[in-house]
Write a structure and sequence with these properties.
Length: 454
């Protein structure tokens, strides 16, 4: 077996509790069978997300102590801005409190009624902001991206033929921008290749379209390009990063995933676009030199971005995920392959194939896994979709339980524990029943909707 090796040691720890199964059953019932509504004190392994919960380095902690606190023009902000300019080569930066705040600004400025936004795959908050501003999303991931079990190295690639078709169908003037998401969140943390991005850029140039990168999961994607793309094997992470950035007009990110802190921001190439977006930052986020982030977060982010340029830092998440995926496959437990970034994705459509999609199989499996092991995953299936304007339910392409692997947080024995609990649950899967809403919010319902067993 290939054992992932921690290239760090643990020097600050947080005590965990593993509540007894009776308490776990009560807790998930109190939470309306929605893992988002559990209290962390009831959770043993929190695999809900990799957002804002990655381990920080000693260097990040140290930088937080020397942060320059001021409302306007702090040296901390200048350090962050310079680091982004250095890494991406983009001259302009707008800070924001997190990724979805960037999406709000981008969508308000670039999307209007009738706009179309082609993308490799949507993310929940991205789509919500685009539709809120009257636009629609066209998902153009190559067909291989939707094959759960595959050996394709770049399942996040956009299909260039589909992009040409969409441009032909709607006309370039209807297209607000083309969006590429690094490490496609909702289909298993799957990367795109640098070559694919270059191909998409060419098509954008032919039609005068903006190319926007969602870089929230860039760290994983960089690792996979280095490992899986033959032409990039000899390149350093810094060089791959610059080649990616060179293709893009705008790069936005959630710093909760990229750089191990809080916050986010938008890196922009054109001054004109920068000026159009700038006004919204003081309105929604805060002054231009903090955008809702604290100076301590900005310092940690600056160091985190630099650490992201180190392959031995960014390979940790993907290596632990690959270990978990391999071990689950050995036990015939259905998972997304190849292993991606972000986390291990269990295929609920197959795991609980007795639960129809209308009864949210992935939500049901996430609840059951919490009861079985105190492990909190996240539903990434139909529950995470939004209904059509006429109220019709949209069944997700995939029904997944995402077991996120916060970077450098869990030890291998904890990961083995999660594998063991999944093995038990798989053997007893017929115990799991479907769910129905008792309370269904209109927007982003998965966050705080409540459900009951059917
Ligand atoms: N884009 C991607 C690809 C993301 O994964 C996220 C967040 C966002 C944008 C929004 O950023 O949370 O800082 O506002 N993903 C988190 C997750 C929530 O758990 O997958 P945010």
């Amino acid at each position: 077996e290939s054992i992932p090796l921690e290239m760090h040691k643990v020097r600050i720890v947080q005590k965990l509790a593993l509540p007894p199964v009776e308490r776990r059953l009560a807790a998930i019932t109190e939470a309306g069978n929605n893992t988002f509504l559990l209290r962390n004190s009831d959770v043993f392994m929190d695999m809900l997300t990799d957002s804002g919960v990655n381990a920080m380095s000693d260097q990040q902690q140290a930088a937080m102590l020397v942060a320059d606190d001021s409302y306007a023009g702090s040296a901390t902000y200048t350090r962050l801005e310079s680091k982004l300019q250095e890494i991406f080569g983009t001259p302009y930066f707008l800070p924001a409190h997190q990724g979805r705040a960037c999406e709000n600004i981008l969508s308000q400025v670039l999307v209007s009624k009738g706009s179309v936004v082609p993308m490799n795959y949507h993310f929940t908050t991205t789509k919500a902001h685009i539709t809120l501003n009257g636009g629609t999303v066209e998902e153009l991931v190559a067909d291989t991206g939707l094959e759960v079990v595959s050996v394709h190295p770049f399942k996040g690639n956009m299909d260039t033929g589909k992009l040409r078709d969409v441009i032909g169908l709607h006309g370039a003037d209807k297209i607000a921008f083309v969006r590429m998401e690094a490490g496609t969140n909702l289909i298993g943390g799957q990367p795109f290749s640098l070559q694919n991005l270059v191909d998409i850029r060419k098509i954008c140039d032919e039609h005068g379209l903006l190319l926007v990168l969602d870089a929230s999961l860039l760290a994983d994607n960089l690792h996979f390009i280095k490992q899986r793309e033959a032409d990039c094997r000899a390149l350093g992470i810094r060089e791959i990063t610059r080649r990616i950035a060179d293709q893009c007009d705008i790069i936005y990110f959630s710093a909760r995933k990229l750089g191990c802190a809080r916050g986010g921001g938008i890196c922009i190439r054109s001054e004109e676009l920068y000026r159009r977006m700038r006004g919204l930052v003081p309105l929604y986020e805060g002054f231009l030199t903090y955008g809702g982030m604290s100076v301590r977060e900005m310092e940690a982010l600056t160091v985190g971005l630099e650490e992201t340029m180190d392959e031995e830092v960014i390979n940790q998440g993907p290596q632990f995920i690959a270990y978990m995926v391999d071990e689950l496959q050995k036990r015939d437990i259905p998972v997304i392959t190849p292993a991606g970034g972000l986390g291990c994705h269990v295929n609920a459509m197959k795991f609980v194939d007795h639960i129809p999609q209308a009864e949210y199989p992935a939500g049901a499996l996430a609840s059951a896994l919490y009861i079985a092991g105190g492990i909190r995953g996240m539903e990434r299936g139909t529950l995470s979709e939004q209904r059509e304007p006429d109220g019709r339910e949209i069944f997700a392409n995939m029904e997944l339980v995402r077991l996120a692997m916060p970077r450098r947080v869990f030890t291998l024995s904890q990961v083995k524990y999660a594998i063991d609990r999944l093995e038990w649950l798989y053997a007893n899967r017929r115990l799991i029943g479907g769910l129905a809403f008792t309370e269904e919010p209109e927007i982003l319902r998965f966050f705080y909707g409540r459900l009951k067993p059917v």
